[in-house]
Amino acid sequence: xxxxxxxxxxxxxxxxxVKFLKKLIKRRGHSPIIIDAGVMGxxxxxxxxxxxxxxxxxxxxxxxxxxxxxxxxxxYEATRVMIEGVQKITTDLWEAGKLDGIVSLGGSTGxxxxxxxxxxxxxxxxKLIVTTFLTTTPVGDADITVMQTPVDLVxxxxxxxxTLANAAGAIMGMAEQELPKEEQRMLVGITALGVTTPAVxxxxxxxxxKGYDSIVxxxxxxxxxxxxxAGAIDAIIDLTSFETVPMTLYSDEIVSMLVGTPEVxxxxxxxxxxxxxxxxxxxxxxxxxxxxxTGIDSVPAEYQNRAWSMHGETVVLFRTSxxxxxxxxxxxxAHANQAAGPVAIIIPLRGFSEASxxxxxxxxxxxxxxxxxALKQNLKKKVKLIEIDCHINDDAFAxxxxxxxxEMISERG
Length: 413
What we know:
The chain is of the alpha/beta class.
């Protein structure tokens, strides 16, 4: 079947190039969808989404942007509006099942337009930026392929045509390549930190033997949320729920910095609860605050009377208190209670991380018990609470996770 390939460009300056790319895509049996992100100038031909529609999707009328530009307004505002418009349109196309791949053409502005739209799409969607400004392309850690062209994409000379032909081949090849059915195993999202790495490895090994694939996220779950919402994840093992510590206890400014987004998130993995995915939750990392620093003197004064430990040369771990763990337990219970799907919480009674096992600096079974007691007080009966007499990094813990996970899957049929 033909694929829908979105092309993002400015049709006043890149019209000939887009027309050529469109021809190549159609020749192979696919459907190009053109989004015109230009503002000034006259487009060579109307896009499937005209610049007027893009501006409106970004919250302004194109006429307003042109009038402001003619009066000497900074280019940034018009660019911002068009970027937001392109992002909204491409997201809507994806959600409607009308986007199988996306390619953008241009210089620094074209790269910014493309990158912003692409970052809003789920991981795994084929994404390609063709640009003359590789070093300033704002890709970050997104799964975006960048093709640098040493010549500007102006005029259909032999070199530009070959560049565009390569781009067409790349984006169509990615869109055409589908994962074989035998490789499409159930995918389980797992959360991790260095202090729970043995537990993560033990669980992955056991799941693999049962025919499940695992994908691991180190502390931050924003990307995992995106994958869940896109339908790419089938179950969650939130083995390392450490994120709940800052989200429950810290200021808005610090939470925003930690999660890496402007908005402040006080909950996590709500997508899994909304989509009724099977979830197993464990208290990995809830026994600590994590601070950058080289010792006790490098962290805020209010933490300096607590048990602490160095994690490498530049990270200090401080023990969470009973009061803090009670608040964290209430937050986790609220998340579990609202889940539409099955949830089990598995508690290792001999420590929640490598730093709090018996004999380690953060060992504090009384505080751990305060967390467990608060969970029991706040959880609804529908949430299964399992206590196991081992440390989180013991293989016995992974074995119980595996057993519980298998029971959940079998109960769902």
